[in-house]
Structure formats: C-alpha cells, structure tokens
Amino acid sequence: MQARTFAKGESVIHTGKPEWGPGDIVSAEGQLHEGKPCQRLTIRFARAGLKTISTAFAELKPAAKPELKQQWRELFGK
Fold first, then answer.
1. What is the strand order of the sheet 11-14 is part of?
2. 1, 11, 13, 34: most buried by Cβ count inside 10 Å?
3. What is the spatial distance between Cα 24 and Cα 48, in angstroms, rounded to a whole number?
4. pLDDT confidence of 78, banded at 50, 70, 90?
5. Confidence category of residue 28, pLDDT binned at 50, 70, 90
6. Closest of 45, 58, 65 to residue 16, by C-alpha
C-alpha cells in the first residue's frame, strides 16, 4: 500500500479513520512486509492520541494546508 515515504514532522490524515483528525509523525522507520518495503509510523492524532501504524495496512495522505489543519483543531478543540 505504501506509495511514498513519510518523515518525522510531517502531518498526515489516515484515510480510513478521518475522524482521528490530522496527525503529526513523531517517528518513522523502514520495514518489510511480505518482502515489500513499508514504514512503521508513530503518529500523534488530534482526536485519537498516539498510534503506531504500518503503511502496509493503513493508507495515509498528507494533511491539508497548515491553515486548514489549524481550523480543524479550532473547530474540534484539539
């Protein structure tokens, strides 16, 4: 499922869990799943807290522009 590599500090949205809100990557490490490269990411989501996920299973996309991310946090209080 991994289409790109993510780095610490990037903001992302988990497409399968949009209710978690935007998340900031706090750690990223490369891994293999069934012989294919992927990443194990620890992400602090606005509404779900700290989660560790694999890009082999979770689809992530870059979070919207920073000003939209801030608007989301203001609306939902985080």
1. 49-54, 36-45, 23-33, 11-14, 60-62
2. 13
3. 12
4. low
5. very high
6. 58
Write the pLDDT tens digit of every residue in 37-61: 999 999 999 999 999 999 999 999 9
Q: Which residue(s) pair with 39 in the sheet?
A: 30
Neighbours of 51 (CB within 10 A): 15
Provide the 8-state DSSP code for 43: E
Q: Quick one: which of 56, 48, 44, 54 has its CA closest to 19?
A: 48
Structure tokens of 69? Answer: 């991310």
Rounded Cα–Cα distance for residues 13 and 8 (Å): 14
Token digits of residue 41: 């990411």
Are 44 and 60 in contact, with CB atoms under 8 Å apart? no
